[in-house]
Amino acid sequence: MLAFARAIGAGAKAVGGIGRAMERRRTLNELAGLDDHMLSDIGLTRSDLRDATAAPLLSDPTLALAQRASERRTSARFARGARHS
Length: 85
Fold this sequence. Notes:
The protein is mainly α. It has helices at residues 2-32, 36-41, 46-53, 61-83. Helix 1 runs antiparallel to helix 3 and helix 3 (46-53) runs antiparallel to helix 4 (61-83). The N and C termini lie far apart (69 Å).
C-alpha cells in the first residue's frame, strides 16, 4: 500500500512539473509577442528569448531570463556610476 501511495505521489509531482513547464513556456511566448523596445524596458533582448527557448523542455526558461535582466540592470548601474566618478 505504501508503494502505491508513493507511486501516486510521484505521478502527481510529475504532472505538476509538466504543468509548470507549460505555464512558463506560455509566459515565454507572451514575452516573444512584445516589441524590442518593450523587451528592452524589462532588460531583455530577442536573443535572450531565443536562448531561453533552446533550454530543455522541463527547465524553467524564466529563471534564465530573470538572471539576464538582473545582470543588465547591474551592469547599467555600474556604467552610470563610472560615468559620474
